[in-house]
Amino acid sequence: GALAPAIERNARLSLATFLLQAGDKDAFSFRVIEKGNVKGRLKPPWLPADLARLGAARGNWLEENGIYLRKFEYGLVLVNPSDSSRTWHRSGAVIALAPHTVRVLAR
């Protein structure tokens, strides 16, 4: 079934944060825990489409104005892990990220 919105947001933020540092041989796992008990794990086919189509990483992660980012073959992942909104500026574009959010920019 569908994930609860809060669980899906947390899973998306966790996956994007993982991708900031992941290497070719790393794997991602997300457990849903309620009151100390594991209620389940996210397994394929769960994977946000925009995060699934990034291709290979192109370099290491960077931090700019409190936003963490990493370039990939087919896009760019931006993560705002903070408790406040942040903006990212590039080539005249301004991208705002709310607290604890992810943005994927496709190439």
Features:
four-stranded antiparallel β-sheet, 107 residues, alpha+beta, globular, 2 helices, 8 strands
In brief, what are we looking at here?
With 107 residues, the protein is an alpha+beta fold. The chain has helices at residues 5-21, 49-52; strands at 31-34, 37-41, 62-64, 67-72, 75-80, 86-90, 93-97, 101-106. The strands form 3 sheets. A 4-stranded antiparallel β-sheet has the order 3-4-5-8, covered by helices on one side. The chain has a two-stranded antiparallel sheet with strand order 1-2. Strands 6-7 form a two-stranded antiparallel ribbon.
Can you list the strand order of the major beta sheet? 3-4-5-8
Helix content percent band? 10-25%
Quaternary organisation of the protein chains: single chain
Strand content: 35-45%
Alpha-beta content class: alpha+beta
CA-based shape = globular
Radius of gyration: 14 Å
Give the count of helical stretches. Answer: 2
Largest sheet entry:
4 strands, antiparallel
Q: What gap, in angstroms, lies between the N and C termini?
A: 31 Å
Overall description:
The chain has 107 residues and is α+β, with helices and mostly antiparallel strands. It is built from two helices and eight strands; from the N terminus they run H-E-E-H-E-E-E-E-E-E.
Secondary structure: elements and pairs:
Blueprint: H1 5-21, E1 31-34, E2 37-41, H2 49-52, E3 62-64, E4 67-72, E5 75-80, E6 86-90, E7 93-97, E8 101-106
